[in-house]
Write a structure and sequence with these properties.
The chain has 108 residues and is α/β, with parallel strands linked by helices. The protein is built from 4 helices and 4 strands. Strands 1-2-3-4 form a 4-stranded parallel β-sheet, with helices on both faces. Helix 2 (49-64) links the parallel strand 2 (37-47) and strand 3. It is globular and about 35 Å long.
Length: 108
């Protein structure tokens, strides 16, 4: 996680599956106190249900605390998975980093 001021940027790459659950959870929890969060998933190609649940809990916790969160998703495979799971209807999902950051700035 990087925090050059605001927003906090949490980045994951590769495949997110049950073997990375602890890493995912601890990294996400470290960003719960941020004023806004860019969840950079641009390098993620796959996530299993365990990872999706962790992401959902994290984003829901932030929304309940009125902390804006934007998901950056660039790989087509992962974008489809997010769409099929319906998460694109619940959270602000972007395929462009600048647009995601502009959204977060507008929410501040």
């Amino acid at each position: 996680m990087t925090t050059n001021g605001s927003p906090a940027v949490v980045r994951f790459d590769g495949e997110l599956d049950v073997s990375r659950k602890d890493e995912l959870r601890s990294t996400l929890q470290s960003a719960l106190q941020a004023h806004s969060v860019l969840l950079d998933l641009a390098g993620v190609t796959y996530a299993d249900s365990t990872a999706l649940v962790e992401l959902l809990h994290f984003c829901t916790d932030l929304k309940e605390s009125d902390v804006p969160v934007a998901l950056l998703i660039e790989t087509p495979q992962f974008a489809r998975l997010i769409k099929y799971a319906g998460l694109d209807q619940v959270f602000a999902v972007f395929d462009n980093r600048d647009e995601a950051l502009a959204y977060l700035a507008a929410q501040a």
